[in-house]
Write a structure and sequence with these properties.
The protein is mainly alpha-helical. It has one domain: Heme oxygenase-like (Heme Oxygenase, Chain A), CATH 1.20.910.10. The chain contains eleven helices and no strands. It has helices spanning 13-20, 22-30, 32-38, 44-67, 71-76, 84-91, 101-117, 121-149, 157-160, 166-180, 184-210. Bound molecules: protoporphyrin IX containing FE (HEM). Protoporphyrin IX containing FE binds next to helix 1, helix 2 and helix 8.
Length: 212
């Protein structure tokens, strides 16, 4: 009797997210801004510009997570996931130049997007997934930034994320997401937002790169 293998689509949200952002993740890896970090030739002004743009975006994202009264947010979001204090502390180490209009436009578009999904918990979690997952990639970029700017921790604490706990924290986030987003329609909303969030990040990093 021949064996019949049935391939099924993964149904847990974190597997679905993982597969549906693969080509978008490749795009951000190839983005000239991230390539410059890896090549140790990112101008410091652009790095500080990224922190400043992220400060606006994370303020909007984390306010929405803190203020949401939806139980699904309460299950996934934890106050100690906040990265705003790290961004603020890093920014305090540098002098910020006025961002170019290209960067301002990309940042404002991003903030408007987050504000528009603030009351849609499954979409908000799609955006949160992208930023939480980026702690894994930023950890890879961290030694390059430390080397380029001769910094240890102060000034790059946002990129350091949870430090040695990154993987443990990621596993916890995955577990909470998988337990909380099981409904097909909710999953679709979450995935579409994660994809759009990747596009917005790619645009922002390109705007930063072209602003020099
Ligand atoms: C050159 C830049 C980057 C590198 C080298 C990189 C690298 C990585 C690595 C090594 C992982 C872990 C894969 C695993 O073991 O499961 C990862 C995961 C992830 N990264 Fe990046 N990353 C980069 C940029 C970014 C950016 C800019 C974002 C978004 C802001 C991002 C979002 C994510 C997400 C969401 C995941 C989790 C994927 C999943 O669902 O498993 N990454 N990245």
């Amino acid at each position: 009797m021949s064996e019949l293998t049935i391939y099924t689509q993964p149904s847990d949200i974190m597997s679905r997210l993982h597969f549906s952002i693969q080509s978008l993740h490749k795009n951000v890896e190839r983005n000239p801004y991230n390539q410059a970090i890896l090549a140790h030739n990112l101008p410091m002004g652009l790095y500080v510009g990224q922190l400043a743009a992220y400060l606006c975006i994370y303020r909007s994202l984390e306010n929405a997570c803190n203020n949401s009264e939806h139980p699904v947010l309460a299950r996934v979001w934890q106050a100690d996931m906040a990265k705003l204090p790290l961004l603020q502390a890093d920014l305090d180490c540098f002098t910020l130049e006025m961002p170019r209009s290209l960067v301002q436009t990309a940042t404002i578009a991003f903030v408007h997007y987050i504000d528009a999904i603030a009351n849609h918990p499954y979409q908000l979690l799609g955006a949160l997934y992208v930023f939480e997952g980026s702690t894994l990639g930023m950890r890879e970029l961290l030694p390059h930034l430390q080397n380029t700017f001769s910094l240890e921790y102060q000034g790059v604490s946002f990129y350091a994320g949870y430090g040695e706990m990154n993987r443990v924290r990621w596993d916890g986030f995955k577990r909470r997401m998988n337990l909380s987003i099981t409904d097909e329609i909710a999953q679709e909303a979450c995935i579409a937002t994660a994809q759009q969030t990747f596009n917005l990040i790619d645009n922002l990093l390109l705007a930063l790169w072209h602003s020099q």
